Each structure stands twice: as C-alpha cells, then as structure tokens.
Amino acid sequence: MSKTEPQLEQIQYRFPNGFWWGSAASATQTEGAAAEGGKGKNIWDHWYEKEPNRFFDGVGPEKTSRFYETYREDIQLMKELGHHSFRFSISWARLFPDGKGRLNKEGAAFYNRVIDELLAAGIEPFVNLYHFDMPLALQQIGGWENRQVVDHFASYAETCFRLYGDRVKKWFTHNEPIVPAEGGYLYDFHYPNIVDFQKAVQVAYHEILSNAKAVEAYRRLGGDGKIGIILNLTPSYPRSQHPADVRASEIADAFFNRSFLDPAVKGEFPQLLTDILKEEGYLPVMEEGDLELIKNHTVDLLGINYYQPRRVKAKEHLPHPDAPFMPERFFDHYEMPGRKMNRHRGWEIYEKGIYDILINVKENYGNIECFISENGMGVEGEERFRGEDGMIRDDYRISFIKEHLKWVHRAIQEGANVKGYHLWTFMDNWSWTNAYKNRYGFVSVNLDKNGERTIKKSGYWFKKVAENNGF
Ligand code: BGP
C-alpha cells in the first residue's frame, strides 16, 4: 500500500441505520426450469415458441440462470455479499399452472424453501407477485384485458399471503405495471404484441384495480407486514421552459408516471390524464365501486425503479389523422445533445433523476415510505473485463451506483423517506427480448460453463458499502 492511500476507508456518504442494501430479480428471468416442477406456461414460454427470432441470439426463457436448482448456493453468495434484503417474484404459473384453480404444491414448496433459506442467511425476503409473467391460460382469455383476471390475481395474491405471510413482511403487488400495458398493447415489445390504445388503457386500469384488490385481501387477512407496489418512475424533463415544452412534459408525466403513482399512493387518478382520456374517448370500462375500492386501498410502501429520464418537447409534426392513437400524440421525444449514455442499453444516464423522483415523492405524495427497488447498468461483453484471477472488473458499474447513491444521500438529508437501495440485479439474468445481451449482476453467470457464478468487483465493493452503511 502506498503512503498516500488512506489506511482506513473514509466514509463520506453515511446512510441511516438499518438502510436496506440488497438487490432484485424476477422469476422468469432467473429460475429457468420453465417446464419443470409442474409449472404451467406463461406468455414468455409461449411467445418464444412462436417467435424465437424476437429474442437476442434466439435465447429463450426455458433455462435462464437456473435459480430453481441453484437457489441455495445463490443465497449463500448473497450472504457473502452482505445483502440485507433480496426481492424476487413468484411465478404465477408455477403456483397456479392455469392461473387459477389447482395449486401446484411443488411450486408452492419451492418458494417456501427460498424464503426459509433467505431467512436462515439473515436476508429479508421482499416478495413481488407480478413481474410481466401472465400465465398463458389467462392470456388466452385476454390477460389483463379481461376483468376476470383481476379476480384471479386477487385470489393468487391471497394464496401467497396465506402460504408465506408468516415469514414475508414486505409484499409487492406489481413490478412496473405500466410495462405490460405499453409493451404488450402499444409498442410491441411484449406479448401479445397488440397496438391498441383503448386496450392499453383497459389493461392499465385492471392492473391498478388488481393492486387495490390485493391490498384489500392483505389487510382483510390481517397481514402484519407492509404491502407496496414497484413503479418505474421516469422523470419527464421538458426541452425548455417554453410553455409548449412544459405542457408536453406534464402530459408525458401523467401518462407514464402519475397513471400508476397517483392511484397507488393517493387512491385517485390525475385529473389531467382523466381529462385527456375523456376528451379523446378512451376512458376504460369501470364498474360501480371500483373507484372507492382504489381510494380505500393504497399502498404502504413504494418501490422506485430508476434507470433513465424521459426528455420531451412540444410536437413538431402533427401525426397522420388515421394513425393509431399513441401517447406521443401530445409530445415528441427529445434527444438532448451531449447526454450521457449507456450505449449498450441505449438508455441515458442521468443520476440527478433519482433525486428529483425522491423529492417529488416527498413533496407531492405525502413522503410515503419508499426505497430504490431497481437501478443498474446493463453492459454487453463484460467478459473482456475479466482478469487472470477470474474477476470481472466492472468499475463502470461501481461508479454508476456511487453517483446515484450520492443523490439518494442528498435526498435523505433533505428529508426523503427512502429506506434502501436494491441493485438490478444480483446475478446476470435473462433480460426479456434482450436475453443475455446486457449483463447487470454483482455476480457473473457464465453460460458456457453451465452458469458458473463469479463475483464481480462491484459485488465486493457493495459488500463493503453494506458493512459500512455507506462509502
Ligand atoms: C426493468 C425490469 C427488469 C429488468 C430491468 C432492466 O424494467 O423490472 O425486469 O429487466 O428493467 O431492463 P432490461 O432487462 O430490459 O435491460
């Protein structure tokens, strides 16, 4: 060690006691064993069978990172990295192969083992119920388009609370519920690849209703933990302060953030969004009592996923009058010159965005208890950073996390009620249609060596951050 190097690490950014350091993952992206253990098919299994070409390098969801087999070893690695908490999702089709009716006992037992193993390792399980993975049998009756699916979801949620609620104290109804609506019904990046604004609105509305019904079930059963929702909040920045640019950003914000944030946290829909849907003739079909149910069943805890901002400007060209109706009828995307990019994923990196979200939640959403439930950097070709000792030196990921954490720290100093930080993700996993193109993990997964795990430099760094409660 050189003389100039400090002997003791200086902690410049210290976080509140008990801050939750950990990571997040989802069932379809990690478990593999897609056709094993009695699991039913979900939309990913089905879509891949139909159109394998839609997936990077033709890699599908059948094996992914094999967590179904290796969860014990993986949880030991989490422990080694000093994780306090870990969020995973339950695969609806593993628990209910048809989405409803018969419970698959083998699937139920698997999640029991995962939960017990986490607890034995001193890691708190955060359990999410829906992460983009509609059981195929329910998609065949319309998925979230069909109101019956809302009730099937509520009974699935209730089953989970009964099975695991004695040990799981942090529940989440949905992860990024806007994604199934925009991916599946507007922008063609999720099954069923429909482009239909009216259906997208109905899907989103049903997801919101299903959140309220699950919250209702949790409270009715006397759940003694917290129930929340995880939203991807993308702050909408206008190109300029010109009123037309500002208006464009407010509308984008209403469509993409407030659409879920307002009903989940405040129990009501933003007026601006309701006005637009009414005026354009796209209000969803609702039933009597729905709005009251939503009003009375808001979440206790908000998970915030943050990757990138959304920059917009006033429209420059009017859309063709016959073109399908899209949110982009009200704004254009704006490519800010000189923006910092993660070119592998094509996403802008704007660290201050995380602070802006937290301050918005503090000021406009009653400072609800929240945490960063996902943040991370997907990088292609990380093997080139592997040293002779076998470790991937992902310094770019360490600085990505640090720069975001500095802003989280500042928000805390200004009173934001943020309780933790979870990286996306623990170990490299299957990124939907990007499959294994971009790697996000603290731990690498070598697909050529039967999924061999090795801890990356960021994993060791994060371990110290968790131990020191700061950096
Ligand atoms: C979020 C999802 C995750 C994860 C992550 C990274 O939207 O909740 O499931 O995949 O984004 O994005 P991607 O995998 O598309 O690169």
TrEMBL record:
Any one cellular-component term (Gene Ontology) = cytosol
Keywords per UniProt: Glycosidase, Hydrolase
EC class of the enzyme, as a word = hydrolase
> In the UniProt record, what gene is named as encoding this protein?
bglD
A Pfam family of this chain: Glyco_hydro_1
Report the sequence similarity comment from the record: Belongs to the glycosyl hydrolase 1 family.
Q: Which PANTHER family match?
A: 6-PHOSPHO-BETA-GLUCOSIDASE GMUD (PTHR10353:SF139), GLYCOSYL HYDROLASE (PTHR10353)
GO terms for biological process? Answer: carbohydrate catabolic process
Q: Does the entry feature the keyword Hydrolase, yes or no? A: yes
Please state what the protein is called.
6-phospho-beta-glucosidase
Gene3D superfamilies attached to this UniProt entry: Glycosidases
- Reaction equation(s) it catalyzes: 6-phospho-beta-D-glucosyl-(1->4)-D-glucose + H2O = D-glucose 6-phosphate + D-glucose
Q: Name one GO molecular function term.
A: 6-phospho-beta-glucosidase activity
Task: List, from the UniProt record, the residues annotated as the active site of this protein.
Answer: 374 (nucleophile)
User: Which EC number applies?
Assistant: 3.2.1.86
Q: What InterPro entries does the annotation carry?
A: GH, Glyco_hydro_1, Glyco_hydro_1_AS
